[in-house]
Please model this.
Amino acid sequence: MNEKLKLIDEQTSPLQRIMWVYNRDEPQRRTFENNICAFHIGNGYFLSVAHNLRTQTGYYRSITDELYKSEIFPKLDGSQSRMMDTHYFHDGYTHKHYLNSTDPVNLQAIANVLKQKRFDTRWVTLAEKKVCIPHLVFQFKENAFYNDPDLTRSFGDNKMMYDNDAKRHTFLVEVNLVHAFYEADIALYKVVDTPAEVIARIPSVEIDLNFLDELKEDFYCLQASPNGPAGRLLNDAKIEGLLDHFGIFIDDVGGNYIFEGYRYLVNGYFRFGSSGAPYLFYDTTRGKYFANAIQREASGIQLAIKNDREGNFQYVNAIASPLYIIKDELQKYLTTT
Model:
């Protein structure tokens, strides 16, 4: 198979996605949120961005009795407690409270109460407290994990399902956050509670930790397809500039932090929702592709429409984090863990 086709084919691509899963073992209540691109760099390690981790979801889909009673209920007054009871169903069998409303007005009211009471709904915290757990979401046309019946049998019923919308067979693989390099906007994850033979079968791409300070030909972005996350796209990209970046991320719970360090200014197609996608280059000497940077944000050019510049942007450029900026830390994790 052509090397480019290998990068986008479901059987050989290193590009996957991570989603936070509520109620994984309860099929009728299972929900997926916080979709982000990620790519396998070998031995069960995946790289993505970090800026989604400290955004707040506002409310939770479900929560255990223990967590509700210890961290939320004591802070509520009578009317707030009654409101929460109205919008959350308590199941005495699972000992959990489940959201039973989809009304945006009700959801905003819940979010307002939780924010007022300083309840931490950041994704990183919800994962730490096991409210919802990040998983790799693998999808295939055929009902087999990488066309291997033996590997497929290693998945329990609660880690396999059929996605009616995408017409794909879906397999869930749990991951833990190893480290978030917030200044660089890079996150490192590792597969957990998964047989070694399953991990070994997941396609990966080697990483290159050099800083490309000259324009690089054969540079590409590997991302989800334009119309949905089930497909993949490999497109030409070009490094047009270098940045010593600065940006502020607002975090009302843990405190604001700064994005900083070297970045690439990249020209080339990227879809909104492509954060975490790898930028690759083809090394003719070694005869293969290497991941060198991660897509992290759009970089708009400002337009004036009827002499008004406010809010008028066209997004043709992107800002990417080269892996070079976490070179020492990344090598430490990959060689000692």
